[in-house]
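Homework help thread (please don't just give me the answer)

Our assignment gives two proteins as sequence + structure token strings and asks us to describe the second one. The first is just a warm-up. Here they are:
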Amino acid sequence: MTEANPSQRRTDASPDPLPVDEAANVAERVVENVERVIVGHHDVTEHIVTAILARGHLLLDDVPGVGKTMLARSLARSIDCEFSRVQFTPDLMPSDVTGVNVFDERTREFEFRPGPVFGNVVLADEINRAPPKTQSALLEAMEEAQVTVDGQTYELDQPFTVIATQNDVEADRTYELPIAEVDRFAKRLTLGYPSPEDESEVLRRVTGGHPIDELEPVATAEEILAARETVADVTAEEPVRAYVTRLANYTRDHADLGVSPRGSIALLRSAQARAVLDGRDYVIPDDVQTEAEGVLAHRVRTGAESGGESGRALIAEALDSVPVE
């Protein structure tokens, strides 16, 4: 398990990409391991893994108690890397996330003490309970994988993924995430309530203990980095890129705020990761369509609403209306 070293920038070269079948195997191991804890959310688990392989961050948005935090913890435990957690509260300060310079009486110098953002998998739990100023402490980290404190920039170790959770209830006790921050999440996913059968299985698994307590890593940080390189090498021909562009333009023509170019990039990268998960080294339109809702819906604002049902409806409309050429 590699400790984050905020005192120096990384200079090591990127790892060699894995063969596609080996990268797919890494992803499958992680999915299967998470499902030892999480029941009935196979599609969501796959979406999370593809987001990580696509160098993205995740926003899990749902009612309390459906397993958002447990899903994030299960994923973090499945990868042998540095995990940190930030419990967002109304009194949390930006420095509580990024870190702070502290004066050392012995050396008569300021020493930087890194915050919890210096991890490989960072769980931002209930992110919408903190005010926007504190939420925004993650902006630079999520976009540029670095943190600047008092004019000094510290690069974050890789892989680096933020998994944020938020509850969509108690609106009077929470803060809306800034649009600029929402746009930095590659995907926004919901779990929903389990079926009666799945809930019964959950109850069976937690009788006498919780399966997460016995969960062991099934992939290393190095394997995730190498699998990311595999994803980056996946071929996306011009017709596929043009299809992504047409989907993005459809949202811009039919919403008050459409998908940004950052969203188009996230969709293409997610489609590349989906191709690897399916054992291919090239993207097909089906990959784009599978990833489109999770990647695009939260970036769309129709009227007063951002994302949500109206965003998902617009993306479904776009998939039905935009031709595949």
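The one we have to describe:
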Amino acid sequence: MPQDSAPHFRLTDRAATRIAEIVAAEGGAQSLRVAVLAGGCSGFQYKFELDREIAEDDVVIAQDAATVLIDPVSLDLLAGSELDYTDSLMGSHFAVKNPNAVSACGCGTSFSVD
């Protein structure tokens, strides 16, 4: 399992804290998997899920008590991105600030690239 040696994808402190809270509430020993899938209203969509398995080619990003897993294909579309967590009156959610996205939908979960 390759460790992230360059800042391809980073977590804000809020995201790292929230991931650690979610994993602890689920009993620990899990990581947040961030993936990019074909679909959504703009061409690609983000997927977030807890995962106990680390694939051999996953990039593992650890910060404080949080661990994020990203497969190499998704990382190509997420290079230079930042994962944040927002908690407001409008709701709470993870949000990806992706410099590769040329457009995004209103929901913030799908995007397109050139």
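TA reply:
I won't write it for you, but here's a hint about the kind of observation we're looking for: Strands lie at 9-11, 31-39, 43-51, 59-63, 66-70, 81-88, 91-97, 103-104, 110-112.
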